[in-house]
Amino acid sequence: MLSLAHARALARGLTATQNDQIAFLESLGTVFYVRRAANAPALISSSVIVDLIQGIYEHDSSQALRRVRSRIYATVEATEMCRGMTMVTAKRLTAPLLPDAGPLPTGLSFVQLHPRATAATWATPPVAFAGDDATARTDGQYMSCALQLAATVPREKQRHECDRPIAALLVAATGEILSWGLNTNARNKTLHAEVNMVQAYCQRTGRGLPRGARIYSTLKPCRMCAGMIWHCAEDLTSLKVYYHEFDSGPHARETILNPLSQERRRLARPELLNLAPESQLAPT
Q1: What span, in angstroms and rounded, lies between the C-alpha atoms of 214 and 281?
Q2: 240 has which bridge partners?
Q3: Which domains does the chain have, with CATH numbers?
């Protein structure tokens, strides 16, 4: 386990230029790290912390759960998106970490990780609506669409290899379906349906979730998904998040999408404290 002094020295050693962003962890003598140049284009749905966690799962899913139990260090401020992903799929985070020119630890090997590319299939969902007028569709119809998509998640023979049948839709104010996602987290614990949906849209368009966006999820978003949705929304006051099934698990009961939650009180501006974008919805 790294001492704080060694972690600060490593942050300095991994930095190519003064303003680089760094996130890393050490596991059994190997340092896994992500480095982003200060002038590199940044997607709102990622950060060096998000890229590190997702990269560890993508690098070797069989060892990922053990590796992400190590403390993550990052030279950037952690957003609610970063904290949510750490809480749900990793363990501990120190951010921001101030690099320091101290003595480097010896005997370490290094693995540089890179941002994941999302599946191009999350653009147009394989479902159809009756009629062509998107503006006439109801919230219940969109939820029915999400439930149809969730039913397409394949079921594996081994339970630990199964993806839970969960789906999410991103819909524009005009009624157009902008993106969608299925839960694919059997091997990469970060890939909940909402994460796939949001990251696919942001990578494809280079922007955040548009004003007036509506999200339809078959299960109440957890802290990771809620944090990413909140962080990526261009206009929180017009955002709506609908879910079909309540999730009573510890990671979904109180999220930043819920008024006066701990996350909301810690992060939100006063005018956003009572904002209630999330509600339960039945299909039609």
Answers
A1: 12
A2: 214
A3: 4-112 (no CATH), 120-280 (3.40.140.10)
